[in-house]
Amino acid sequence: MSDTSYQNTVPQWYVAQTYSGYENKVRANLEKVIENRSLEHLITDIKIPTEVSVERDKDGKEVEVESKLLPAYVLVKMIMTDESWHAVRTVRGVTGFVGPASRPVPLSEEEVALMGVEVRVLTLGYVVGDSVKITKGALNGFIGVVKEISEDKKKIKVLASMFGRETPVELDSDSVVVLD
Known about the structure:
This protein is an alpha+beta fold. The protein folds into 2 domains: 12-115, Alpha-Beta Plaits; 131-178, SH3 type barrels. Helix content is 17%, strand content 37%. It has 3 helices and 11 strands. The protein has helices at residues 23-37, 82-89, 109-115; strands at 12-18, 43-47, 50-56, 62-68, 73-78, 94-97, 131-134, 143-149, 155-162, 165-172, 176-178. Strand 3 (50-56) and strand 4 (62-68) form a beta hairpin.
């Protein structure tokens, strides 16, 4: 590893391979290593991607079950240096990093988004009831009022004023601007 120089100064997500069933132990041990060696500036986050599903038990009761999306893998957000690489690589239960010839390869922004590792909160410049102008699509230029915003804030419903009638329209949230 020491023959490789990393120019990375921004933390990125890397995938560490672990023994099966050791994911939680690896996270706990790595957190101790980070604290003991004061590596908070290099290793900023550790995640074990999971999903919660609702299943019915033998009595018919609904039970929430958490399962690992990537068994035997732990995601580590870090600035890759010899020191941070060594800190992760030597934690008991870690078998290596994902990448060719043990050279760690960071996840792309698309991969991070698809896995839901980092939740980015989208803030809109408008709320329900605001008057907006549609800026994209077939209704470009029409005026309307925001009636509903989806939970993920990706879609909105607008009552658009078209030819003297108000027509409900579903749009992408970036397809409107607030009227002053």
